[in-house]
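Q: what does this look like with adenosine monophosphate bound?
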Amino acid sequence: MASIFSRIVAGEIPSYKIAEDEEFFAFLDINPVAKGHTLVIPKKEIDYIFDIEDPLLGRMMAFAKRVARAQEEVIPCKRVGLAVMGLEVPHAHIHLIPIQKESDMYFGGSKMVTSQEELAEIAAKIREAFK
Ligand code: AMP
């Protein structure tokens, strides 16, 4: 069965899309830990990020970098933090999180409450800044 993220890529499940190319797709995390929290995935369904072959993993990181540059332009932050866990969704993904401080990357606490309108607005801004 296709992963929930493959179903997002296929357009079967809606997402707040940021960017895509032939190999990768970026969209807002639906339960952000910080404003602008974005996920970058390979379209090819691979569960564990370290099972991705080196060239594809390299291109994925380069794609994530372009997303991070767009986030930096739009969301006031000191840095864009990067995390990989994959304990919930078995489809490799990189979390890109605009942060002001270390604790902004805390995944164990309560998530931000963000309206659909605000998520759509944030996604549109990052999407526009993506080069
Ligand atoms: P993990 O697999 O532990 O890295 O976490 C999976 C992440 O995917 C969590 O931060 C979820 O909020 C996020 N997530 C799960 N389903 C969706 C979805 N349909 N759209 C966007 N983000 C999602």
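Strands lie at 17-20, 24-28, 38-42, 79-83, 94-99. Residues 4, 13, 15, 29-31, 39, 85-89, 93 surround adenosine monophosphate (CB under 6 Å).
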